[in-house]
TrEMBL record:
GO CC field: eukaryotic translation initiation factor 3 complex
Domain of life where this protein originates: Eukaryota
Pfam families: eIF3m_C_helix, PCI
SMART domains from the UniProt entry: PINT
Region (Disordered): 193-220
Family the entry assigns: Belongs to the CSN7/EIF3M family. CSN7 subfamily.
Protein name: PCI domain-containing protein
Domain PCI: 1-151
Length: 220
């Protein structure tokens, strides 16, 4: 078990990370031994850390319902946590969609973040400004086209996705090199034909010189 001093330091670090407006990566905290010990000694704090490490906005709401006085008794600002959790939820949705269609419908965002549909673009822009996602909003289609997104947790699944993308890029590069090689060969053949002259290219108006005309011809 962690010492009281280690517990206090861990709680202070966790509270600071939760309430810092621009801190979104909780993997560094979960890797600490003192935080691991905190999960066992203080279940509510451990659950809250799990939510911000990889769960969604609805999970935070369920936590607040089950622990109605926890935030206020620990001087945690509910609005700050709600905002951060909405941004992290949007990040998770983008990460899931980027592996499939690379598009995220406004309706899905509104439902997951529990916000009016007219507020979707505001939240997406906020998420982009925080550096969590990159993409393009389409009002006409009512969807967010994802160019890049941050993975809240990077495990075996994410490594498989990286390997798959690298293989795709490798295949694309091989195809490009083959096209370049083919075009280069065509260019060389055209230049050789130009240097050889029109007679050789067309096979017309060709006359051998005197030595060629008098050369013996062998017939088998």
């Amino acid at each position: 078990a962690a010492s009281p001093e280690a517990r206090d330091l861990s709680l202070r670090a966790l509270k600071t990370a939760l309430q810092a407006e621009k801190h979104f990566d909780f993997q560094d905290l979960t890797a600490l031994d003192s935080i691991q010990a905190l999960r066992k000694s203080d279940e509510a704090w451990g659950e809250l850390l799990e939510i911000f490490s990889g769960q969604l906005y609805e999970d935070l709401q369920e936590f607040k319902e089950a622990n109605s006085s926890f935030l206020s008794s620990n001087s945690l600002n509910e609005d700050t946590l709600d905002r951060k959790m909405r941004l992290l939820t949007l990040t998770s949705l983008a990460a899931q969609s980027s592996s499939d269609t690379r598009t995220l419908p406004y309706s899905r965002i509104a439902k997951a973040l529990n916000i009016p549909s007219e507020d979707v673009e505001m939240w997406v822009i906020d998420c982009i400004r925080c550096g969590l996602v990159e993409g393009k909003l389409s009002q006409q289609k009512g969807e967010f086209l994802i160019h890049r997104c941050t993975h809240r947790a990077f495990g075996e699944k994410q490594w498989r996705e990286v390997a798959s993308r690298l293989e795709t890029w490798r295949t694309s590069l091989v195809n490009v090199l083959n096209v370049i090689r083919s075009q280069k060969e065509d260019f060389i053949r055209e230049k050789e034909a130009e240097l050889a002259g029109p007679e050789v290219r067309s096979g017309q108006n060709y006359r051998p010189d005197r030595r060629q005309r008098n050369a013996p011809v062998e017939v088998e």
